[in-house]
Amino acid sequence: MKTVEEIRRDFPILSLKVNGRPLVYLDNAASSQKPIQVLNAYCRFCESRYANVHRGVHTLAETATGDYEEARKTLADLVQADARGVVFTRGTTESINLVAQSYGRKFIKHGQAILMTPMEHHANLVPWQVLARAVGAELRFWPLNQDGTLDMVEGRKLLDARVAMVAVAHVSNVLGTINPVREIVEMAHRVGAKVLVDGAQAAPHMPVNLSEIGADFYAFSGHKMCGSTGIGVLYGRPEILEDMDPFMTGGEMIREVWLDHATWNEIPHKFEAGTPPITEAISIAAAARYLQEIGMDWIHAHDTMLTARAWELLAAEPGVTLYGPAGERGALVTFNVAGVHPHDLAALLDRDGIAIRAGHHCAQPLHRWLGVQATARASFYLYNTPEEVDALLEGVRAAKKVLQLV
Q1: Is residue 20 part of a domain?
Q2: 226 flagged as catalytic
Q3: Catalytic residue chosen out of the listed positions 43, 46, 226, 362
Q4: Which of 31, 77, 283, 354 shows its CA 20 to 30 Å from the CA of 221?
């Protein structure tokens, strides 16, 4: 088992200095850094194995196809799912749009309802708004408790036979709330509704077992789990994917084409039109293997320790307001400092080499619910240390002094 110090040596960028200070990277909920194992896998593939995949009969084409399809199996293994249901997309956003368009336009009817929560990332809100307008469906929103958890009692009242789809984040990218997705899936299936889970903030940080969760769709992104940008995963139950229409059309997703019609390829290729993200798939597979070697249970425990430390330290700091549940939560803390705009705080922390995120985090409705326009967010991952959490607190204190708040 690697120590955190050994893990950090796997990430070349962590040796950088920013403004003369060692980099303290606490923006992992936006995008994580990449270990040398992922960078090497990407380069080796490009240097010695690259070709376009499928249909080619020459050696490189067959080798690249084998690597690409093996990547699919690797991602299926990461979330304990059937590889036939693993569709490579450009990221969580495209995955959700694929479901909204390919499943929603075909199966969600006028007068039915789509149930979401106010904590959803715009990527799991706006596609359903567009679909609802297109088909005449109703949008419903699961109420939140004061601490940012789901009000399960009131939510049950909204989950009736008119609900065709429940779209919910596994972990909120603002509140850190870990939603009871398995319970939600069971509730939804009892009334005949399908469930899409946005796993962008969960799959990189904790064990995910889709055979236990039972979600109809689950989406996550490579760049948040030590892989490259431009690649994501949509898992869909194979029997549902079989009944869906393609999201995009063109090469690869077809079986046969005539001048006036075409038939579709088998799943999951039916949803991968054109040349797929081949090198990116190699990257995300290498990232998945790296995380599995470290151990998802260890990563979850490490993230939980860091997050609890950050919450405890910031909660004790005068003038700091924290958002979300105080107990079990995802690997982030979102907060504000009285008298300091989040953007100013992020800029002052950057002077000390500390990278955080500031803004509405693509969750404007949630910020309206919180009663603020923006927040600061520090988010953690397997290579962060308790000392970096302490540096965050010291940076907050230094910012308050600069602005003469203490």
Answers
A1: yes
A2: no
A3: 362
A4: 354
Q: Which residues contact 364 (CB under 8 A, 6 or more apart)?
A: 122
Helix (H, G, I), strand (E, B) or coil at 50: coil
> Which domain-ending residue is among 272, 293, 314?
293
Residue 89 and residue 149 in one domain: yes
Q: Say yes or no: 163 and 187 in one domain.
A: yes
Residue 292 and residue 79 in contact, taking contact as beta carbons nearer than 8 Å: no
pLDDT score for 5? 97
Could you read off the pLDDT of 204-220 as tens digits, one per residue?
Answer: 999 999 999 999 999 99
Range of the domain at 304: 4-27+295-402
Domain identity same for 265 and 119: yes
Cis peptide before 246 (omega within 30 of 0): no
- Are 165 and 219 in a shared domain? yes
Nearest in space to 7 (alpha carbons), one of 379, 294, 223: 294
d(CA 291, CA 289): 5
Residue 40, C-beta contacts closer than 8 angstroms, at least 6 positions apart: none
Neighbouring C-alpha atoms within 13 Å toward the C-beta of 172:
30
- Residues in contact with 347: Cβ distance below 8 Å, sequence separation at least 6, in sequence order: none
- Cβ neighbours of residue 390 under 8 Å, at least 6 residues apart? 313
In this prediction, the residues of the chain whose per-residue pLDDT falls under 50 are none
As to burial, measured by CB atoms within 10 angstroms (0-12 exposed, 13-18 middle, 19+ buried), residue 254 is: middle
Last residue of a domain, one of 255, 278, 293: 293
Q: What does pTM read for this prediction? A: 0.97
Burial class (CB within 10 angstroms; exposed 0-12, middle 13-18, buried 19+) of 58: exposed
Task: For 288-341, write each residue's pLDDT tens digit.
Answer: 999 999 999 999 999 999 999 999 999 999 999 999 999 999 999 999 999 999
- Residue 406 pLDDT: 58
pLDDT at residue number 78: 98
| Count of domains forming the chain | 2
Q: Are 262 and 334 in the same domain?
A: no
